[in-house]
Amino acid sequence: MDKLVTTRPKEKALLAGAFINGTAAESMAELEALTLSAGAIVVGRLAQRRTAPDPAFFIGRGKVEEIKTKAEEAEADVVIFDDELTGAQVANLQELTGVRTIDRTNLILDIFAQRAKTREAKAQVELAQLEYLLPRLAGRWSHLERQVGGIGTRGPGETQLETDRRQVRHKIVHLKKVLKEIDRQRAVQHKKRSAVYRVSLVGYTNAGKSSLFNQLTRSQTKVEDRFFSTLDSTTRVLKFPYFPRVILTDTVGFIKKLPTHLIASFRSTLSEAAESDLLLHVVDFSRSDFRENIAEVQKILTSLKADKIPTFLVLNKIDRLEREIGFENKNGFWDVARVSALKGSGIVGLTNKIESFLRWSSQNQNGAPVRANEPPA
Ligand SMILES: Nc1nc2c(ncn2[C@@H]2O[C@H](COP(=O)(O)OP(=O)(O)OP(=O)(O)O)[C@@H](O)[C@H]2O)c(=O)[nH]1
Ligand SMILES: [Mg+2]
Question: Which of ligand 1's atoms lies nearest the C-alpha of 318?
């Protein structure tokens, strides 16, 4: 089956975005990276600045005509929108352009579906896909969507297409049960390890979390220049002379406009991070929009109730910087470290910071984890 997918010519995608606020160029570049991560190629881009989305088409009607023309010229197989569309908007757009249309959420869910390997990750992604699908079932599926294959049609979408809402709901209930059981088993495991100090890597996708994980634990977790290469948390022991019981966890990356259903279904995996004593927030310092990336990750951490955990900011990929970039103060972070997880620079310094923090924490809190917004004065 895999073979069939890989030998098929790459899908040609036309990207479309409406920018209510924020920068169009960076957002489109990210959508392009997502599209490549999903295994398609980009044949064109269309962006429009708007004050509000159009209820029927999301973008202006004139722009829809432009999509139609451009899609024909470039022989696009799919149009990908940078924002979440309603079922009606998708139907209207497809009718006018004659091209299969998906949205950013669909694209992200598809990447997750391609990456999911474990039973838990598969169930989590499938649950998110079905929750996304449910309100869109009525009237959405045109002949275009019945063509087999392509981004947004992998996973349960393919098999559930013609089934009714009741069956989808039934499946949702079942998946929730499966996940609850896996979660229960994890809680048991967790209890067994409760004397352990936990440190977790969090951050934007592709920031270099797994690369740093490998550096810190001298292991070989998969590192790729693709979005969402890590879905399942990996845990290894971090060795310190004074703290034999520290474990480091690598987690799934975040992204702007991360589908809420995905956050919800990955909540239990992410709870590992939420129960940490220390977070290492890894950021790709070579990205021009690294500040937005930090803010986005903080927003998601807040929704996971992990915003009160002491956090170090790790400015990664410093080997890529053409000039020194100032980063004023600590901005509420307990500490800031500059590293290159690729070249291995700054790793010893970071390790020392982690050890000092843990030593301080164990002495000052009688071993209990510190929960505070701000570092001590
Ligand atoms: N130049 C440079 N590249 C780096 C550095 N750290 C990581 N990378 C590259 O960035 C890409 C992503 O690295 P990963 O470690 O997989 O990133 P991640 O944060 O785990 O990404 P996801 O699991 O997909 O969310 C890979 O191509 C790495 O080789 C660094 O310090 N410098
Ligand atoms: Mg990773």
Answer: 31
* 151 located within any domain: no
Q: What is the dihedral of CA 353, 358, 363, 367, to 10 degrees?
A: 170
Q: CATH number, domain at 241?
A: 3.40.50.300
Confidence class of residue 142 from pLDDT cuts 50, 70 and 90?
very low
Give the per-residue pLDDT at 180. Answer: 92
For the Cβ of 58 lying below 6 angstroms from any atom of ligand 1, the answer is: no
Note down the domain range covering 25: 2-115
DSSP string, 100-127: EEEEHHHHHHHHHHHH--SHHHHHHHHH
* Residues whose CB is less than 8 angstroms from the CB of residue 358 and which lie 6 or more positions away in sequence, other chains included: 197, 240, 242, 243, 246, 277, 278
Instruction: Convert the pLDDT of each residue in 178-225 to its tens digit.
Output: 999 988 887 777 766 666 789 999 999 999 999 999 999 988 888 888
Tally of structural domains, the chain: 2
Q: What is the domain-level CATH number for residue 55? A: 3.40.50.11060
The domain boundary, picked from 73, 89, 115, lies at: 115
Q: Select from 211, 227, 262 the residue to mutate for testing ligand 1; criterion: most ligand atoms less than 8 Å from CB.
A: 211
Q: Model's pTM, two decimal places?
A: 0.85
Together in a domain, 104 and 231: no
- Atom 14 in ligand 1: residue holding the nearest Cα: 208
Ligand 1 pocket, residue 346 CB under 6 Å: no
Task: Name the closest ligand to CA 319.
Answer: 1
Q: Hey, is 311 helix, strand or coil? A: strand
Residue nearest to atom 9 of ligand 1 (CA): 208
The per-residue pLDDT for range 22-35, each reduced to its tens digit, is: 667 778 889 999 99
